Predict the 3D structure of the following.
Amino acid sequence: MKRVGIILEWLGIGAVGLAALVLLLALAAAAWLQTESGNRRVREGVLSRVGRVIAGELKAGRVEVNPGGFVLVRDAELLDPEGRRVAFIGELRARVAVGELLRQRVRVESLGIKDAELLLAGGPDGINIARAFALKQKGPEEAEEPGGHFGWDIQLERGLISGLRFAYRAAPEAEPVTELRETSLAVSGRYRHGELRGEVGARGRLLGPVAGPFSLVGGVTGGSEAVPYDPLQFERVALEVGGSRLQLAGSLDGGALQVAIREAFVRKDDLLSFVPQAPVAGDLTASGTASLDSNRAQARLLVPVGEGSLAVKAAADLSPLSAQASVELSELDLSRAISGAPPTRLNGSLGAHYRLDPGEAGRGELELSLRGSRVRGARLESARAKVEVEGEGAKLRSLIVSLPGGQVEAAGALDAKRLDARATVRLADLGALSGAVAQALGTQVTGVAGRGRLEVSASGPWSGLQVGVNGELERLTAGSLSFDGLVVKGRLPDASRPFLLAADVHARGGKAGELPFSDLRAKVEANRRDFSADLTTKGLAGLTAHLGGALDPGVQGGRIARLLLEAGDAKWVLERPARVDLRDGFRVDRLELSSGGQRLELRGGLSGSRLEASAHGVALDLAALPAIAVPRDWKLAGLVGLDSKITGTTSRPRVEASLDGRGLGFQTLRGVDVTAKVELSERQQLSGEATVRKAGARAKARFNLPTALFAAKAGTPLSAKLELSGLALADLREVLGTEQIEGALSGTVSLGGTVDKPDSSIALQGSGLRYGAFPKAGLRLEARSAGRSDAKLELSLPRGKVSVDLRSGLPLLTLVRGPKAEELAAAALDLSVTADKLALEELPESVLGTRLLGEASLSAHLLGSLEAPRGEAKLKVTGGGVAEWRELGVEALLSLGADSVGLDASVHSGKERLVHLLGKMDAAPERLRTIEGLEKAPVHLALKASSEQLARQLGERIPGLAGKLQAEAKLTGSLGVPRLELKGGLAALTYDGKLLGDLKLEAGHAEGRTQLAGTLESAKGGAANVEAAVHAPLSL
């Protein structure tokens, strides 16, 4: 800010000097007119006079003046005291009001400058323009010139500088930090007895550090006869560079600069042009104030970030250096400010102060306090930290972080040579704590729970830190493993030599899956000579493991002499000692284990980040795997041969494996043979083939797929094919979790295309398929998905056939990962269903709810989507029967339109129509998905029934009753405010064979009132009437 003030101050001085030059030239013109000698004398006189005053040098190639007030200057140049160019003017044209000169007033009516340069450069002695205009130090023999202060009144009515080039360098020989070209500058102002008032407007193109259009407008006032140019007020200063802008006002008073930043907007792209590595996530906005005087700088800034803000208050005394700063965080989202940062809601404060006295080490302190904050949605209840800094060392006086389920406390000290720190983790709920930490880190942790306490310490020089861990957990659960009364003790004497350690673990009891164990004891120890590891448990999950050997001098390697693994009936022992190389990793020459006829051999390992290892297994018995390793209900069986090899690096591994299994079994599935070859490339591409055989059935797969299928980049190719032949579903009953399935499947499933544009197809044939009480059926399925999904399904039943033709807008990847409910509802749909002469009696009563007879035919065609379907469905039943009814015929038509839903249905018995229903709701189907939509939709419903059979069925429920039933019902209005009309009765009503007459009933409902009227007209004359009314609302 100070440098900006100095530049503006000296630009003002330069403008005054320029105007003074115009004044002197105009006076000279009045005296010498236009003679060549006169012009030469004016030029030499003015330049000589200016040269005696300023430290720099002013040159001019040609000067022309005339009595009319016209001035022409060409090739004017300003040099700094070292002779380097500061400014250059190719051509200056001015018009001066000559009549004003007698009153010591210079009024420049117009000023035009072309082809100008302003080349500013910093340096240890200040900016070059200030040094060029600095007054020369007068010697003792030089007397002060008469006249005192410059007393002329100078006014510039309008000035235009075009073709201006501006550059600023940090040092004279450095590359330009800021450079402007093609700039036009409009200037107006007035100087009178030390007082300055002016306005500037500039437009141009900035070349660096940000390339783009540039504009500047502003005004300056200030100064007095006693103190020229001081104070200066900067008004309405607005700067735009590229897409960024700055609006400010301020003052420069006696070297003290005060600035009010009304708006500072920095576009992200502009900032990255200036600082390419800046981790900014978006545009930045700020407002505030700043001040700078000879020994103190202060600033207050408010930076909005999304819905939150960052408030900064800072001050610094420059000599000696003493700085203070405070930052207030309010709902701060770091992801909106810092690229790559997690989304946060931070609330709290940060305070810091630092002091550096001459000859002493700097001292400072930092305090952080956060409350009610969140990181990636995970709750950070509170965090408090206090750090002290002195010289090159720092002390963490206290750190307390409270999270859901636990608290972390830490303290310590560090410097360039050593670290001394300790931390305590209090676990009230390990599940909640691990979940919060995982959520904050953007990962997932499941199946972890427990409570207890952990203490961690680290001390010593950085080259050989001693690390210790002590913990007591009342209970710990991790997946299928659980521990009760767990005690952990560990010590690492030298962190640079991690193979020298000691650790003890003891648990009172626990479970491995459903298998309990007790008295778990584990001990690991490695000194400079020997190492050993022991693990024992008791119970159903009993396990014994022992590892022992010796270390080479220098701990660069060692020898594994003993290795025992015993679980249940399986006992694995080391066949011969194995050499281990610990230089820059872990590698073994040959580790061979045996258990009866089983053999397992391991070679290689890790060197730095390089991998080179292999495994070879012979006759591995799956049934002998320990119960602690696999669930008991898997019921594994069979022998497996295995060869595998891993190479590459830890970040880009390459794996090759082959497997040969005979007589394999899983649950009820037995007698399966498997051969497989699999390869994982450095590009994380999984390829290979596998064949599974059982009796006459076979499944063969070939594939080449990325391991991260849903995260792979667009354009990654996909290739997979599965061939099935004679697959018996009965063998998969336990695997599928049902005993009600049978039949066989054959066909192919293939996948191609790319990750972003997959292409898949399915072709399946099934025979003798049955599920539960459904009849046996044949199946034919053909499906294709390439951008959209199409499927055709045919089911052949003993009596009848069902065909389904589906076209869906859902892509394959959405179907594979499982579409969300809203995706499924909104997907484009084209569905056709046809069922031809389907025997209803063969369908299970458990599905239909009752036993049905007859043959049904169905045709339906739906378009649109599930949430907004359009189309129609037709149903026809012949020879139908239900309960006591027989030989029924049913016809129904359901239509779904853009603005209505309609139903036309009728039931016949022979040629007699028993019931006819005609209904319509004036609303699109999607509007009828809610109770509110159903209540508001206009409805039109008409029902007619006329039949002696209906009367007979009624008579079976009321013994002795007979007659002919006739009924009509109409429903209008809406289901929320219905209007109902009902007319009906029994003609020739008889009871126990006696003719009673005709019974007529009428009922209606409208506007909250329900009416009922009944009349019984006797066959012998006379009538009985009944009427009733109820005032009560009726609605859905």
User: Anything to note?
Assistant: Residues 690-827 form one domain. The longest helix spans residues 2-32. The chain has eleven helices and 57 strands.
